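TASK: fixed-backbone design
INPUT:
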């Protein structure tokens, strides 16, 4: 509750947090619209593969021309303006940057950017949840070893969920489930960029006119983005996926305490402490009453007669037993809220969520029967969707992570609905992102085996 005061103090002292943004797409642009209005923040540089696009994003979000004319980062830092560059490594290495925001969406690029931040001592805010789902547990560990803060991005749903989980636990409640809402039907897993628009009620012509990327929108529809985000939440909170991954039950906010409790208590969950995504559609396509399509939630337990009585006295909506209740936030503001992470990292040295273990993984899963020789096209494409799995199960199966299922050729056929394995594809073992992910698998595999050995000895 003190972030604005601390930022104002930084502004008054002439010591703003010096920020470098990588990626001037939609998320980055939303942050740009707020950054210039936030005290104690100096956006020193925007790095993008297309400086022209970055310049257009700044103008579109209200930046005056005189604020974006600096030729170098040193000049921008000196006169309070913003430099536009296509040299991301130089921006990360610059002495004029304190906090780097990765808003690229590229898993491979994200890993490289975090490792560069580790090398140069720059805190990093990862809008790039794709990279976090691929390798966040090891990236966060490397960041800690380097003495920098690695943080999920507030405004995106994973960080908001982490905040709600933290609230519940800090108040003494056991978290039963946490997650988000989305629009889901089982057949959406087979959706492709060619079939996506009718599901959104948009014509292909209108989508094209609006510059909407069908593959990106399809990743939200086919369940991939939900899997990615819940992997990030699991790895940051200690909550875990069900053995079969996400079930996407149809559920409105009034039913959260009833449905998002364990089967043993009359609900739908496999276990206490689960990540789950709820659908805004019934399976017969009817809209759910008071859905949570754009929001996040947490369910928690009273687990004592006294607290159950308090729930009743203070009007909490509970299940029939009075033991389970829920809190939710109906919306998330994406990049408009990103400044919370920047401020938390910059003035408190605290992440708004970060992996502290490996519990959830997102495995490439065939959308249709795939033939040997086909090339996978990654997130939101024609060939695979991302399925959430417990990390131990993914390791045991040799699952190919969704974040690396792009541009790799199948060595053998894979049936629809089946996880693609490392052994099913031709891949470059020397590619940096592949090497880093394989290192993470090795590190955590050893830890999992050691933990299992200790448990066996205790048993």
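OUTPUT:
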């Amino acid at each position: 509750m003190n972030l604005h005061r601390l930022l104002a103090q930084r502004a008054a002292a002439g010591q703003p947090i010096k920020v470098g943004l990588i990626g001037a797409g939609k998320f980055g642009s939303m942050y740009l619209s707020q950054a210039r209005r936030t005290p104690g923040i100096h956006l020193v540089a925007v790095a993008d593969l297309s400086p022209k696009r970055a310049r257009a994003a700044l103008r579109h979000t209200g930046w005056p021309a005189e604020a974006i004319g600096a030729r170098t980062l040193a000049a921008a830092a000196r006169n309070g303006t913003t430099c536009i560059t296509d040299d991301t490594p130089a921006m990360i290495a610059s002495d004029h940057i304190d906090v780097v925001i990765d808003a690229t969406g590229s898993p491979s690029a994200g890993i490289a950017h975090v490792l560069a931040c580790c090398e140069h001592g720059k805190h990093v805010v990862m809008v790039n949840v794709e990279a976090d789902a691929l390798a966040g547990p090891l990236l966060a560990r490397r960041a800690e070893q380097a003495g920098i803060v690695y943080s999920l991005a507030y405004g995106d749903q994973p960080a908001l969920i982490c905040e709600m989980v933290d609230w519940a636990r800090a108040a003494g409640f056991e978290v039963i489930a946490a997650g988000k809402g989305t629009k889901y039907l089982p057949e959406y897993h087979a959706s492709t960029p060619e079939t996506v628009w009718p599901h959104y009620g948009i014509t292909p012509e209108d989508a094209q006119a609006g510059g909407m990327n069908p593959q990106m929108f399809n990743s939200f529809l086919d369940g991939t983005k939900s899997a990615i985000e819940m992997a990030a939440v699991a790895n940051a909170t200690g909550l875990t996926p069900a053995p079969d991954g996400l079930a996407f039950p149809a559920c409105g906010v009034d039913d959260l305490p009833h449905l998002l409790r364990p089967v043993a208590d009359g609900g739908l969950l496999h276990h206490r402490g689960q990540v789950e995504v709820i659908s805004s559609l019934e399976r017969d396509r009817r809209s759910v009453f008071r859905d949570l399509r754009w929001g996040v939630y947490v369910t928690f337990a009273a687990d004592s007669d006294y607290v159950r009585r308090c729930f009743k006295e203070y009007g909490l909506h509970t299940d029939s037993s009075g033991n389970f209740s829920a809190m939710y936030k109906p919306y998330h503001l994406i990049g408009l809220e990103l400044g919370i992470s920047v401020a938390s990292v910059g003035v408190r040295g605290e992440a708004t969520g970060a992996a502290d273990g490996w519990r959830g993984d997102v495995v490439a899963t065939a959308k249709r029967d795939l033939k040997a020789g086909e090339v996978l096209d990654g997130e939101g494409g024609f060939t695979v969707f991302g399925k959430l799995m417990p990390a131990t199960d993914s390791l045991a199966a040799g699952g190919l992570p969704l974040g690396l299922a792009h541009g790799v050729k199948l060595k053998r056929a894979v049936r629809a609905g089946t996880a693609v394995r490392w052994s099913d594809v031709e891949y470059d073992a020397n590619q940096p992102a592949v090497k880093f992910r394989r290192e993470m698998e090795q590190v955590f595999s050893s830890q999992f085996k050691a933990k299992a050995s200790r448990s066996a000895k205790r048993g």
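COMMENT: The first strand starts at residue 17 and ends at 22.
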